[in-house]
Amino acid sequence: MTTGTQRSLINVTPLIDILLVLLLIMMVITPITSHGLPADVPEPAKDHATNASQPPLILRMDREGRLWLNQDAVAESEFERRLTQALAQRADPVLFVDGDAELPFAAIARMVDRARGLGFSRTAILPPSRR
Fold it and tell me: How far apart are CA 14 and CA 28, in angstroms?
């Protein structure tokens, strides 16, 4: 005996055929049309040799709060003048900041803020392994 319901099946073979053809078309067209993004590579600086000869500028603060610019002691009253003078002599305004491990971070942050206010656009705090 048969019941009154009729069961219909979807034939997926034509769907799979169409998908495979589309996949094949995409695989053929993709290598032909890919060109990448345009990129403008910057040229090296012309005075690169003079920048390499300058030692890095390192501002240090010891436990007592005394400041050192590379190996020279800097009085608090001369801080801005000495950093401005050092900035004027450099083409690349990079300053490395080194603080004693006993110092609170707020003291180092104030030193970085003052240096950035004078025109040092790039500052970096030295990690303990580089001190």
Answer: 21
